[in-house]
Amino acid sequence: MKPTHHPRYARHRFPPEGISHAVWLYFRFPLSLRMVEEMLAARGILVSHETVRQWALKFGQSFADQIRRRLPAPGDKWHLDEVVISIAGQKHWLWRAVDQHGVVLDILVQSRRNAKAAKRLLRKLLKKQGVTPRVMITDKLASYGAAKREIMPGVEHRQHRGLNNRAENSHQPTRRRERIMKRFKSAGQAQRFLSVHDQVANLFRRPANTTAADNRKARARAFMTWENVTGLAAGF
């Protein structure tokens, strides 16, 4: 294969295609760093799992930011939910917002489950999305109502546990990654990893109720976007 040159990968002795592929594998699938190391070894790229971790740290957030800019505008119905995660023996809360299509809008790892924490999430969402939703759907947690009244007073707010399955289901991939990674080591690590993981998942998400042919087209578009984001092909 003719080597690919891109300024983003300057001073790396490993092929850029391998770096891009490793980052894609790590964030796209529930794989440990050592699993990615072994999959690269099968392709003749001998790196340590620590090298894969450093690649994920260096390139992951940059790729995620570019993916976010290339995705379609979010839906006007936001589902918000929070789930407890254990980090170093301490209880933390993972706050997540998704739209009505299941696209993850943003996440925030916090140590509290109060109105202040809910306000931080809403402010972060408004800053990143640049628009307010038509409807906000949450469970019965009172913190959402208090935050909404201050941050987004004109937005319709529906509170019902049964209406929020979309947000609750979006936590499942995180639980799988928690098991593979043997829990997150710090709140910062969880925030960094999930911020990238969810955007990669958004890009390669299979739309609901689609045919196999439509899914192949959507996947081809996702790979094309990944190539534009990384400057390289996702696989080699």
Distance between the termini: 9 Å
**CATH architecture level-2 label of the largest domain:** 2-Layer Sandwich
Percent strand: 15-25%
The number of distinct structural domains comes to: 2
User: Largest sheet, described in full?
Assistant: 5 strands, mixed
Tell me the Rg in angstroms: 19 Å
Number of helices: 9
- CATH superfamily heading of the largest domain: Ribonuclease H-like superfamily/Ribonuclease H
Uncertain residue ranges: none
Inertia-based shape: globular
CATH fold type of the largest domain: Nucleotidyltransferase, domain 5
Annotation, overall tally of beta strands: 5
Helical residue percent band = 40-55%
Neighbour order of strands in the largest sheet: 3-2-1-4-5
Q: Briefly note the structural class of the backbone.
A: alpha/beta
- Along the chain, the helix and strand elements come as HHHEEEHEHEHHHH
Protein name: IS6 family transposase
Organism: Microvirga aerophila
InterPro entries: DDE_dom, IS_Transposase, Transpos_IS6
GO biological process, one term: DNA recombination
